[in-house]
Write a structure and sequence with these properties.
heterodimer, A: 5-stranded mixed barrel, 3-stranded antiparallel sheet, B: 243 residues, alpha+beta, 6-stranded antiparallel sheet, 4 helices, Exosome complex component CSL4 (chain A), Csl4 (chain A), exosome (chain A), EXOSC1_C (chain A), RNA binding (chain A)
């Protein structure tokens, strides 16, 4: 167990008409340099940059000499893979609960449609790659991304309704307001929907779903679920 | 056999006032029949129940609907309405038609409409238009052409006077044969009207006296029978020495 003594210099100009004097402050810290059960907080010193590589949740401090944490969690040291030219271990922070899933381009998301308009539909993203999200993400399905064929004849009202659960693909990070989603594949589209009468509908084809209570057929862009 | 009202194969609530919750038809007692439901009725598994207060009507053999009258308008396809322009966006006008949402009127939805001759409607312009898209979710869409693309009296209404009524009175004014009050007034005064099913009526005549007379006569005629409307109109005309 080795103890690190940390010296931080803080330069304060002293009020004097002549040259600026330096006043230094020394802060002493004990930090345990191995895996422990103690929690580290952002900014806390983890190790020397000469001995460790900064992994997930850690970063190299601006002076290039120390590796510090940028998340709250427990530290974890992984030995360097054999045969790599750099034999420093990797330090990363695990067990932090801040990150839920975040949609990335190419991931399949489950979203609930909130608003249907003439040229696009808004949806709230609920799951990313079968992991629930912890904060709200908005997505937009544009008219040209609803299906792959005849994209200029798409009627948004016959594809989605507010409240439908859809499986979609994230096309891009979109603009500041919403991700761009697409349902232009056979296995993408409405997965679950309620009819006007309130019953959960059963898919009949890739464009129609039927209500079990009244027998009414409603139009949707239905996902082909195996 | 059920003797309850409304649970028979032929309902006896026709032409009576019904309120939401009343059961009109029991489908388990009717075999192999096609029934057409109009506004105000809803299928609840095996029962047809009323959704809106009003009078139940039947058009033989099998069309049922509820006639009601409100001050608020719910947009329906192919209704003709009077709208007031609220805003001009790049590709459509935003028009208020007394509906829950503002309606969109595309700038090209006029006879011979191209990008070069977009009409210049200011805020407050009165428009006579037709509803071409109305579902409960999106903003309704209007058009100032008929189905074949001709102008057909749609467009801006200039001069005249516009007042608001209930939807029931608007439907009565548009019924055929001609509504008695309009017929009685038309015998002595020349005027033109445009009636919007959203509860707006526009009246235009050569002099302001005539416009006021016609508007007042229409507003008073909502709850009068045919004969009463004729008597009321004639009294008004006498008072202004038009007969």
């Amino acid at each position: 167990m080795h103890v690190r003594r940390e010296v931080i210099h803080i330069h304060l100009p002293r009020r004097s008409t002549s040259k600026c004097d330096m006043v230094g402050m020394v802060i002493e810290r004990d930090s345990v340099g191995e895996e422990g059960d103690d929690v580290v907080t952002p900014g806390e010193f983890l190790g020397e940059a000469t001995e460790f590589i900064a992994g997930k949740g850690a970063y190299v401090s601006p002076n290039g000499r120390s590796v510090r944490a940028c998340l709250t969690g427990r530290r974890k040291v992984t030995a360097a893979p054999p045969g790599s030219h750099d034999n420093r271990s990797t330090i990363e922070i695990v067990g932090h609960k801040a990150h839920g899933a975040v949609p990335q381009p190419g991931s399949i998301v489950i979203a609930r449609v909130t608003k249907v308009m003439a040229r696009n539909a808004s949806a709230d993203i609920m799951c990313v790659d079968s992991k629930a999200v912890k904060e709200k993400f908005s997505g937009i399905i544009r008219q040209q991304d609803v299906r792959a064929t005849e994209i200029d004849k798409v009627d948004m009202y016959q594809s989605f309704r507010p409240g439908d659960i859809v499986r979609a693909l994230v096309l891009s990070l979109g603009d500041a307001r919403a991700y761009y989603l697409s349902t232009a594949k056979n296995e993408l589209g409405v997965v679950s929907a309620q009819s006007i009468s309130g019953g959960t509908m059963v898919p009949i084809s890739w464009t129609e779903m039927q209500c079990p209570l009244t027998g009414q057929i409603e139009q949707r862009k239905v996902a082909k679920v195996d | 056999m059920d003797v309850d009202t409304g649970n028979m194969t032929q309902t006896n609530l026709v032409d009576k006032v019904v309120v939401p919750g009343d059961v009109v038809l029991d489908l388990t007692k009717m075999e192999n029949q096609t029934i057409k439901l109009g506004s105000g009725l809803h299928q609840d598994c095996d029962y047809i129940s009323v959704m809106q207060a009003g009078k139940l009507r039947l058009s033989k053999p099998n069309k049922y609907w509820v006639e009601s009258s409100q001050k608020r308008y719910v947009p329906r396809l192919e209704d003709t309405v009077l709208g007031i322009v609220v805003e001009h966006r790049s590709d459509n006008f935003l028009v208020d038609i007394k509906a829950p949402n503002l309606a969109f009127l595309p700038v090209l939805a006029f006879e011979g409409g191209t990008r070069r001759n977009i009409p210049k409607f200011e805020t407050g312009t009165l428009i006579y238009a037709r509803v071409v898209k109305a579902n409960g979710i999106m903003n309704p869409e209007l058009s100032c052409t008929d189905a074949s693309g001709k102008a057909a009296e749609f467009g801006q209404l200039k001069n005249g006077y516009m007042f608001e009524t209930s939807t029931g009175l608007a439907r009565m004014l548009l019924s055929s044969p001609t509504c008695p009050v309009l017929e009685a007034l038309g015998k002595k005064i020349s005027f033109e009207t445009a009636v919007g099913l959203n509860g707006r009526v526009w009246v235009n005549a050569s002099s302001p006296d005539d416009v006021i007379l016609v508007s007042n006569a229409i507003m008073r005629s909502e709850f009068l029978s045919g004969t009463q409307q004729r008597i009321m109109a004639e009294k008004l005309l006498e008072r202004l020495q038009k007969s």
